[in-house]
């Protein structure tokens, strides 16, 4: 493909003809939109056929319905990313139904339950957190890249892994409550670099979008649950770590960054850890 980005008639961030798999495209209930759902809707608005993957069937179908209401094209795949074979099935189904994979967004994260009195977590819950936050990302990166390398062109696919500044910034000390999450995101950062290096010759790109304080249902819920904060305290805690005066970002801002990384306009970017954090990681 010859880049024509300087032409006046170039349509920016055009995903027409591309198939984008959004893993974590549903979301937990609440008033705010999540990163996965916003990314799925944004990709569809720019012409992609979107595969909405989630463990929660109702949440996945709700995202599909929202895309359909705007005239977009999508379908759900129900899968548990803690299971390797479920990760494989995501891409088997996509290839069977759509014939190709051009983009993959891994937007999945959990904080496993813990005992607040003893500040402990069962081994099973800890392992499940690592399986979802990290190993699921590894398998989805691998299977997505293997599909993408079959495509033609000088840029054959783009992977976007949603990470967190929790992987590089720790202000609360060694705490079991977020360890599977933070460790999982550390691993996901490295998985991005490995994927980028391994599949670069095939034209597949992989980048990490490292998020800071995003105003999402998951972030608000986990602040209140993990650290027993009121909604107002959770909001202030997020704002306190942001260096820019506008405060927290919305998941739509995440989605626009994801759009850039999925689109051909970012074809010279791979293996990068991009911080969307309002400057929160400037001081460590």
Automatic annotation (TrEMBL):
Transmembrane segments: none annotated. Gene3D superfamilies: NAD(P)-binding Rossmann-like Domain (3.40.50.720). Coiled coil: none annotated. Pfam families: adh_short_C2. The keyword Endoplasmic reticulum does not apply. Keywords: Oxidoreductase. The keyword rRNA-binding does not apply. Belongs to the short-chain dehydrogenases/reductases (SDR) family. This is SDR family oxidoreductase. The lineage of its organism: Bacteria, Bacillati, Actinomycetota, Actinomycetes, Mycobacteriales.
